[in-house]
Amino acid sequence: MSIKGKFITIEGMDGAGKSTQIQFMKRYLEDKGYKVLITREPGGTIIGEKTRAVILDNKHKEMDSRTEALLYAASRAQHVSQIIIPALQRGEVVLCDRYVDSSMVYQGKGRDLGYKPIKMINDFATQGLEPDLTVLLDIDPTLSLQRIIARGEGDRLEGEKIQFHVAVHNAYMDLAKMYPNRIKVVNANGKIEDIRIEVEKLLKNIFKGESIYEATNSYCSR
Ligand SMILES: Nc1ncnc2c1ncn2[C@@H]1O[C@H](COP(=O)(O)OP(=O)(O)OP(=O)(O)O)[C@@H](O)[C@H]1O
Ligand SMILES: [Mg+2]
């Protein structure tokens, strides 16, 4: 597989500020001349949408944790092959709101399946495609829960209690330790503007020494 672009993911608990910061990231990179695609699972693929609808349906209370993990991986497989890989092959920067790390955290730790099986099914699902950079917005779990409640939203996952949020937070910290080169932790408890500046530093680093010409026209093998 020949990949020219860069693949960047953003992670963090619900309400951590991912949607807010990803828009800043897009603007920052576009100003530098990169072509940027923002996406999130299921990414507009019909198969992914249908799969996701089964997972998030509040009526499906009997769903086994393994079923849930496999459905997320199935939705991701379609998103990767239909949307992300083609964009990378066109030389674009792909900014993805949540990716495999979310499954490691929510299904691996949150649903107690363990990291190993989640990593295994997702390596298969993603054809081994790993991000060049993962920005992890690290927010205090009580603060993220407050934001979710303030929004008045809720699906099957957000209905869980604070203990679940603490477990998710701890799992994200586990991952940051497991993949220190890829995952960069940004303190997300502060002001939107301060977080934006920290995230831009990470972007600057990942594109260091690379001209726009190289980023959009040359092949780099991985
Ligand atoms: N640093 C911040 N300080 C205060 N409020 C913030 C901050 N960042 C984002 N918000 C607000 O918190 C809410 C959640 O932010 P956002 O939607 O960006 O989070 P998210 O990580 O995308 O959440 P989800 O996982 O649920 O999609 C929004 O109302 C947003 O305006
Ligand atoms: Mg969001």
Automatic annotation (TrEMBL):
GO MF terms held by the record: ATP binding; dTMP kinase activity
Residues in Thymidylate kinase-like domain copies: 10-196
Alphabetized SUPFAM superfamilies for the sequence: P-loop containing nucleoside triphosphate hydrolases (SSF52540)
Keyword terms: ATP-binding, Kinase, Nucleotide biosynthesis, Nucleotide-binding, Transferase
Catalytic activity reported: dTMP + ATP = dTDP + ADP
Keyword Cell membrane attributed: no
Protein residues bound to ATP: 12-19
Superkingdom per UniProt: Bacteria
Gene3D superfamilies: P-loop containing nucleotide triphosphate hydrolases
Free-text function comment from the UniProt entry: Phosphorylation of dTMP to form dTDP in both de novo and salvage pathways of dTTP synthesis.
Similarity comment text for this entry: Belongs to the thymidylate kinase family.
Protein name: Thymidylate kinase
Protein source organism: Alkaliphilus pronyensis
